[in-house]
Amino acid sequence: MKLTVVGCSGSFPSAESACSSYLVEADGFRLLLDMGNGALGELQRHCGLYDLDAIFLSHLHADHCIDMCAYFVARYYRHDGGRCAPLPVYGPEGTEHRLTTAYADTPTASSMSEVFDFHTVKPGTFEIGPFTVHTERVAHPVEAYGIRIEHGGRSLTYSGDTGVSQALVELARDADLFLCEAAFTHGKEDIPNLHLNGREAGRTAALAGARRLVLTHIPPWTDPEINLRDAREVFDGPVELARPRTTYEI
Ligand SMILES: [Zn+2]
Ligand SMILES: [Zn+2]
């Protein structure tokens, strides 16, 4: 698998990065995890506008899905006058309604479904293209999913947004790469069931036996070096900060 960080800023974009969005590729199949603010622009550095094969939305906070409205425009009002075939979109209950409402004025209430084929995510195991994926509810104020993606004997786990979560430990069990949010700072913010700090992300990786930890979703007002240091204190494996346009071979 190849993972490309399209955007990794948490909660709102930074000067350097779009919000959450990660491209996962294998066997020529392109799966996008989340499409937060600014992701659609950045995505075009990495693949053609119409080259995605599926999209997975971890939850419906704007920093994970709002560029789906822009992508609707690109697929529905193609410059050649045609419309794109429906692209599989996996998201929580109510994804189509939320995106339609966010767009505010789609031609009809069902216009989104002309270019997106919506699938409701539940906890479980299913196939997306060549990938076997496992989803579990994680600890966040809205219905939110962590996801484990397996292909060719390798595994990638993405936390989405979550507080401390045993389900996330299981999803990240022995993962070759664990892409984990670390939005909070240890000793500063302490709100349960919302986000992890660097220490909690590191502890989750240690409990899971993950092989490599990449910290992501760090907001512009959080010092990433503190979270990196905190994670390293509790996790012995390699830890680094996600940066836009970085790729990983998994
Ligand atoms: Zn978020
Ligand atoms: Zn969120």
Compose a concise summary of this entry:
The protein is an alpha/beta fold.
Description:
The chain has 250 residues and is α/β, with parallel strands linked by helices. The chain has one domain: Ribonuclease Z/Hydroxyacylglutathione hydrolase-like (Metallo-beta-lactamase, Chain A, 4-Layer Sandwich), CATH 3.60.15.10. The chain has eight helices and 14 strands. It has a seven-stranded mixed beta sheet. It is globular and about 55 Å long. The mean pLDDT is 98. One zinc ion is lined by residues 10-11, 20, 61, 63-64, 161, 217.
Binned, the helix content reads 10-25%
Give the CATH superfamily.
Ribonuclease Z/Hydroxyacylglutathione hydrolase-like
Sheet with the most strands, sense and barrel status: 7 strands, mixed
Beta-strand residue fraction: 25-35%
Number of β-strand runs: 14
Topology:
Blueprint: E1 2-7, E2 21-26, E3 29-33, H1 39-43, E4 54-56, H2 62-65, H3 67-76, E5 87-91, H4 95-103, H5 112-115, E6 116-120, E7 124-128, E8 131-137, E9 145-151, E10 154-158, H6 166-171, E11 177-181, H7 198-208, E12 213-216, H8 224-234, E13 239-241, E14 247-249
Helix pairs in contact: 7-8
The protein binds zinc ion (2 copies).
The site of one zinc ion has 8 residues, from helix 2.
Short key terms for the protein model shown above:
Metallo-beta-lactamase, Chain A, 8 helices, binds zinc ion
